[in-house]
Structures are given as structure tokens and as C-alpha cells.
Amino acid sequence: MSQTDHAHAQPPTAPVEGDGISYSGIIWFVVILTVTTLFCQALVWGMFEYWAHRAVTNEAVRSPLAAPMTQPKIESGHLSTGTTLAPQPGLLVSEPTVLGDFRTKEDHELATYGWVDKTQGTIHIPIDRAKALVLERGLPVRK
């Protein structure tokens, strides 16, 4: 039989269209990407540790006539190999330190008296005194 009670019936609603995005797929992608990244980082770190340990334990026996092994270190902004047998590389490791030392040396030379070449009789004088002498005597002129 047909339904005749129309007073309590719900009016038909229009179907709602979804946005078409699978949010669970995005979440799974982020989780898998994070796990893969962490795994790769751990793998690379483990490989570095393994090869560093292997390099130390499998070191060849050095000849008694060979120069002693040295460890490179940083001294006043430059890389020092610790040996004088071979030429030292001129690598700057800490440029601000080297620049600070250079400026301190230059400021000292510009503010003090000293010898440039004692055999030639060449000296340097403070820059302020040199400026005053130029103003007082004028620039040198050739004859």
C-alpha cells in the first residue's frame, strides 16, 4: 500500500558533491615520506660511522722512516697541517679572524714609528704626522 502520511515526511534534499580530495591519502603520504627520510638519514649516519671506524682499525703500518702522522688544526684562522716537510696550503678557515688580525697590524703600522728597511734607511711614520708634514712642506716636486 502507498504511504499517505505526508505531514511527517522529510523534503528531498539535493545531493552534496564532495571536494574530491582524499585526506587520508595525504596523511599517509606525509607519514611514509617522514619515515623514509628518517630511515635514509639513519642509514647515511650509520655508513659514515662504519667507514670512520674501518679507516681507524685498518690503518696500514707506517714505515719507521716515514714522517710522523699529524692532525690538521686551525691556527689563527688558517688551516695548519702540522708538518714542515711539504708546502702548507693557504686555506682560510676563519676569514673574520684573519681580517681582524690584518686590520690590527695595519692600524699599528699607521699609528707608530718603525723601520721599513733599516739598510736603506726607510722608515714609516704615523699617518697623522705624515699628513701634517705634507700640509706643512707641500708635496715633493722634481726639478
Provide an overview of this structure.
The chain is mainly α and 143 residues long. Among the domains are: 22-56; 94-138, no CATH class. 44% of the residues lie in helices and 9% in strands. The protein has three helices and four strands; from the N terminus they run H-E-E-H-E-E-H. The strands form two sheets. A two-stranded antiparallel sheet has the order 1-2. A two-stranded antiparallel ribbon has the order 3-4. The longest helix has 35 residues, at 23-57.
Topology readout:
Elements: H1 23-57, E1 73-75, E2 78-80, H2 95-111, E3 114-117, E4 122-124, H3 127-137
Antiparallel strand pairs: 1-2, 3-4
Unreliable stretches covering 5 or more consecutive residues? none
> Termini distance?
134 Å
Strand order of the largest sheet: 1-2
**How many distinct beta strands?**
4
Estimate the mean pLDDT confidence: 83
Give the H and E element order.
HEEHEEH
Compact overview of the structure:
This protein is mainly α and 143 residues long.
What are the defining features of this structure?
143 residues; two-stranded antiparallel sheet; mainly alpha; two-stranded antiparallel ribbon
